[in-house]
Amino acid sequence: MSELQGFRPKQLPPRITALRVRLDESSPADSHDPLGRTHVGYSPDLTPQELWERGRGVWKFRADHVAASTIVLMVHDKTVVLVGSITGLTLHRGGLAILGEPLTDHPLIGKPDPLHTPNPLAYGVINGEVERSGREQPRPLT
Questions:
Q1: What pLDDT, on the 0 to 100 scale, is given for residue 66?
Q2: Of 64, 51, 47, which is closest to residue 24 (Cα–Cα)?
Q3: What is the enclosing helix (H) or strand (E) of 55?
């Protein structure tokens, strides 16, 4: 019987299930906004919390896609401007708002949209060296 020495099994990069919302430029919210917002959309001068409130809802996602996802990517001009955790959802006038919080130090912020599609909403799996909590994984020593 032969023995394989020095063998290390290949570690596949983790898979992260994510939602992506494309944010347009900042604009006034609907006068009866269910989240009580005065504005929606992206503006470069917003704090992460303000951007989170503007972008977390109300979207026409399927509830099962939200439940299966661990993060939401907020994208403006094909670039990730904010990543947020997903801890739940609320239903508003047939749309969904995401519950969670901004992950301000997430490694995808500032990177190109990994779920690039022409649609304003997307759902998919991101392969890469980012763990489910949104933190970079330590790389094995070689």
A1: 87
A2: 51
A3: helix 48-55
DSSP 38: S
C-beta of residue 125 within 8 angstroms of C-beta of residue 17: yes
pLDDT band at 112 (very low <50, low <70, confident <90, very high): very high
Strand arrangement of the beta sheet that strand 121-127 belongs to = 79-85, 71-76, 15-22, 121-127
C-alpha–C-alpha distance, residues 122 and 34, integer Å: 22
By the 8 A CB rule, do 137 and 129 touch?
yes
The pTM of the full predicted model, rounded to 2 decimals, is 0.78
The backbone region for 77, taken as left when phi is positive above 0, alpha when psi lies in -120 to 50, beta otherwise, is left
Over the stretch 49-64, which tens digit does the pLDDT of each residue have?
999 999 998 898 888 8
